[in-house]
Amino acid sequence: MATARKEYELFVMGNPLLDIQVNADKTLLEKYGLKANDSILAEEKHKPLYEEIVKNYEPVYVAGGAAQNTARGAQYLLPPKSTIYVGCIGNDHFGKQLRRAAEKDGLRVEYMVVDEVATGTCAVIITDHHRSLVANLSAAEKYQLDDLKSVKWKHVENAEFFYISGFFLTVSVPSILEVAKHAAEKNKVFVMNLSAPFLAQFFTKALDEVSPYWDLIFGNETEADAFAKAHEWAHTDIKQIALSIAQLPKVNTKRPRIAVITQGSQPTIVAYQDGTIKEYPVIAIAEDDIVDTNGAGDAFVGGFLSQYVQGKSVEESIAAANWLANINIKLVGPTYPAEKIPFVPK
Question: What gap in Å lies between CA 123 and CA 42, rounded to an integer?
């Protein structure tokens, strides 16, 4: 007799943010010292940006945060009750909006809620199909290890796969390590994302603390290059950087590491710990069909995980990743079609 499927096998942890998304030109980027394709944490000089885009532009509000985008993407292609998401929000209107939006997408959210600060937000500035993200973490950075070990630990024990955004390194490295060590001890799959160049540049020590636990590590070519520079590697070829990441020291030797590095419209590089490197082309898309690349990377990982947690091969998982990312960039924001479109492997 077949064993019943266990609920909520994919555990995702990150920074839940309400995205405030606007279309603008380079003038706005220059005013706040922003780059067209970048992700940064808000500094004091960026604080007026949020009020300005709400007042002077036509904002679109999306339940976001990189890890939550990925969780929603994975759940989009998974059976009901497959994905659970953990993070911290404020006890406010935006927090309620986030919860409603996530649950509408079928995601089970187990937020830690705090009263003292507001729910986190992210300014998303779109210029000519490029996006600049400025995150004001606020409540998101208040997540505590105690919440994980007491209230949420039953969900950790229940899960077989774990995904944590690299952005969470700025919030609670102890929480990441707690999950990572559990995964290694129980031979479960632990997955992370390099997430942004600034993490490799300024949070190198934190990255190096968690890297030995990576079973799967995702990133794009810019993030991989920043990781190589932060570690003073001599080689600059992205394939070799991917391989070097795959071959970093590893705690759980029962699972060889896989590094997946995307390159926009160029083929995705998959490097294995044994030295194998493979390339997978993306799905071609006409320039006129591109609406917004914001969230495409998150959708890619979500699509990949949706198959990988079901025991599918890397090749099948990459196919789903490309498929979901292709759908995502035809929509506004890190969103997915309201009516589910089934993924059919070719």
Answer: 9
* Gap between the Cα atoms of 239 and 236, Å rounded: 9
* Block mean pLDDT (10 aa), the chain, length 346: 76 94 92 90 92 91 89 95 97 89 91 95 87 92 96 96 97 98 98 96 97 98 97 96 98 97 95 97 86 84 97 96 92 80 82
On whether the CB atoms of residues 301 and 218 are closer than 8 A, the answer is yes
CA separation for the pair 39, 312 (Å, rounded): 31
- Is 182:204 a contact under the CB 8 Å cutoff? no
Report the CATH architecture of 10-16+65-119+138-328: 3-Layer(aba) Sandwich (3.40)
Known catalytic residues? 298
Residue 264: closest CA among 305, 301, 293: 293
Q: Tokens 């993924």 correspond to what residue?
A: 343
Short-list 218, 197, 224, 190, CA closest to 301: 218
Q: What angle do CA 337, 317, 225 make, to 5 degrees?
A: 95
**Residue 3: its pLDDT value, please?**
60
Among 78, 111, 67, smallest CA distance to 7 is for 78
Cα torsion angle, 223, 226, 232, 237, sign = positive
Q: What is the model's pTM?
A: 0.90
